[in-house]
Amino acid sequence: MTNIESRTVLRILDANANRAGEGLRTLEESARFILDDLGLTDRLKTHRHDLATAMGCWSRLQLVESRDTPGDVGTGVTTESEQSRADLSSVITAATTRTQQALRCLEEYGKTTDPEFAASIESIRYQCYATFRDLELKMAGVNFRLRKLQEARLYALIACEPDAEPLKARINQLVDAGVDVIQLRDSSVDDRTLYEQASFGAALAKRRGVLWIINNRADIAVAAGADGVHVGQEEVPVDAVRRVVGRDRLIGLSTHDIEQVNEATRTSADYIGCGPTFPGKTKSFDHFPGCEFLKQVSDAEQSGDLKLPAFAIGGIGSDNIERVTQSGIGRVAVTGALASHEGMHQTASAMREMLERVPLR
């Protein structure tokens, strides 16, 4: 290989090592700060360090001397897509693609001068494929959950059933009736039963394309593969729950006045329940904030002070849902209204029709 060819190869290696390192750092930050995933963060950091070690067979001064940024004709070649990113997922997609391409270039051009170096890059490249798969799938799960949550209108709370078959029938009936989110709430059963039904429900909900939330039990939500957990004001604080469930699962928080709503916006909660609106049959309360509270929540949404999806809860049914929508709230969580199999579809349909008159913010 001539001196000119050697210098050209070094220039290519330098450019692609920089490109791969930048891509890995971008992905490491996404795993660390977006997903709060220690395992993925550690794997990406290891890939980055392995790349630096592999590049150590080249003199740093040789690589720097080969660099000619002002004379690089490629610096002025850009596409419109390079100048913008639609969302966080697109940042990750761009970084994984860029890193994979850079590693392939390192491997191919490295073969011309050092086959051992090329083999080490090949190993890193295959390891990255596996890590990138896990990262992108996890990010896709986050996006799916947040998108479904933003679109949700009807949220149903259910208790455990005697066994899997009636639970399956119950979930399917609710989904067929138009429910977007289902929460499993039952403090009367033992942990093993709750876990088993939570796991069964999580798998079925995933197949049916609805969100599956576990009440209060962050540990069971994670173990069962649920989409999230819902907690109350007197339960484990949201940010402590976040450390258990990670960034990729949803956390809902019950609120009973506008001060609690404002406080919720300062936590990592993904949505809030607002109520109780009316007296119900499943839980008893000394105080009912009612529709006046819902109006305050709606005003906060309109002003932009509240960006969390807000679900009215407490005694809501087809006979009083119009009062809820008149307050400006277009999402509700219900228990008794959809408890009976008979007429469930008609009730759910009527409630959705009312809710969809309210624009989602």
TrEMBL record:
GO terms for cellular component: cytoplasm. Coiled coil: none annotated. Keywords: Magnesium, Metal-binding, Thiamine biosynthesis, Transferase. Residues 154-337 form the Thiamine phosphate synthase/TenI domain. One of its GO terms (biological process) is thiamine biosynthetic process. CDD domains: TMP_TenI. Its cofactor is Mg(2+). Gene3D superfamilies: Aldolase class I (3.20.20.70). Binds 1 Mg(2+) ion per subunit. This is Thiamine-phosphate synthase. The gene is thiE.
